[in-house]
Write a structure and sequence with these properties.
The structure is a single chain. This protein is mainly alpha-helical and about 325 residues long. The protein has a single domain, classed as A middle domain of Talin 1 (Up-down Bundle). It has helices at about 1-30, 35-45, 50-60, 65-95, 105-120, 130-150, 170-205, 205-215, 215-220, 220-230, 235-250, 255-260, 270-290, 295-310. α4 runs antiparallel to α11 (about 235-250), α4 (about 65-95) packs parallel to α13 and α5 packs parallel to α11. The longest helix has about 35 residues, at about 170-205.
Length: about 325
């Protein structure tokens, strides 16, 4: 019964992701918002509320068990997106975009690598809290960098879903449609997290292991589905940008909560997982920049994911 519930909830998240991508594309077209800012900032922020709330609520509860879950969730999200997310994107590129050129500016991925490296470095430093300002500054510069981009989406836009039902101003309807999804997706993910935690308890996994491996399936599903939907529509730049923006956010804002509310003593399992996330992102960057054969990038990410999964079992 648990698996059926999870399956239905994942379908609901996919449908909500379709709706929010439709709304964001409409708003971007109406307001002539730069392409990078649309996917890497607006879409990322609209779907990363769970990633921010899970550690925040966990830390505010103040128990060792909830703090453990909070710290694990900070590492779990980037791990999932940088391995499974990037692996799927590389498979799509290999299948549909073999003759690609300048598919994405990999500089944007360096923001995540830099921030996550700072986060890992903080583990070994005596004074950690000043690094919060570094993490937030790097993310703010990332946002500025996306907004500075002048490239806007000039492709033929799809009809706004809500406008098929109500004939009203497109900007207003798109905003309502996006707010509806942001609110709805929070409750869907909250239930999905509960169901996934039940599986973790059945397997007898610790809070750290469960939060690292299972919780991201729920919290990162919207970002992953958004990326896959954009890739399906031929908008591979927005697809990559959505994951890059989510990673940049998670390596700064939720990570800052960890430095603020805890002593930041991180288990070896999570430290290694952090390095896996960075290495996977490097392989992905090399692949899309053609510095490395895409097939080798796919095999490398798959290999380090499998080896890490075996390690934590």
């Amino acid at each position: 019964m648990v698996f059926i519930t999870i399956f239905l909830l994942m379908i609901a998240i996919y449908i909500l992701s379709e709706i929010i991508v439709n709304a964001i594309d409409t708003l971007a077209h109406e307001f002539k918002i730069p392409e990078g800012f649309t996917s890497s900032v607006i879409a990322a922020l609209a779907t990363t509320l769970p990633e921010f709330l899970v550690p925040l609520i966990s830390f505010l509860k103040g128990t060792s068990a909830t703090s453990e879950i909070g710290v694990s969730s900070i590492f779990g999200g980037p791990f999932f997106l940088s391995t499974i997310g990037f692996l799927l994107i590389l498979l799509i590129i290999e299948a549909k975009y073999k003759a690609f050129k300048d598919i994405y500016d990999i500089t944007n991925l360096m923001f995540f690598i830099l921030n996550f490296s700072v986060l890992l470095l903080a583990i070994f430093l005596p004074y950690k809290k000043p690094l919060i300002f570094v993490l937030v500054f790097i993310y703010m510069y990332f946002v500025y960098n996306q907004f500075k981009s002048q490239k806007t989406n000039k492709e033929h836009e799809e009809e706004l879903l809500l406008r098929k039902l109500i004939k009203f101003d497109r900007k207003v309807l798109a905003t309502i449609q996006m707010i509806f999804v942001v609110i709805s997706i929070y409750f869907v993910i909250e239930e999905l997290v509960i169901q996934i935690e039940n599986i973790s308890h059945v397997l007898g996994w610790s809070n750290t292991k469960g939060a690292l491996m299972f919780s991201p399936i729920a919290t990162e599903a919207p970002e992953l589905f958004n990326a896959l939907i954009w890739a399906r529509k031929g908008k591979i730049r927005q697809s990559i940008g959505n994951i890059a923006g989510s990673l940049a956010f998670q390596a700064s804002m939720p990570a800052s909560l960890g430095l603020l509310f805890t002593s930041w003593h991180v288990p070896d399992m999570l430290i290694i997982g952090g390095f896996v996330s960075i290495i996977s992102t490097v392989f992905f960057s090399l692949g899309i920049s053609k510095s490395l054969n895409i097939k080798i990038g796919i095999l490398a990410i798959l290999l380090i994911f499998v080896l890490y999964f075996i390690y934590i079992l």
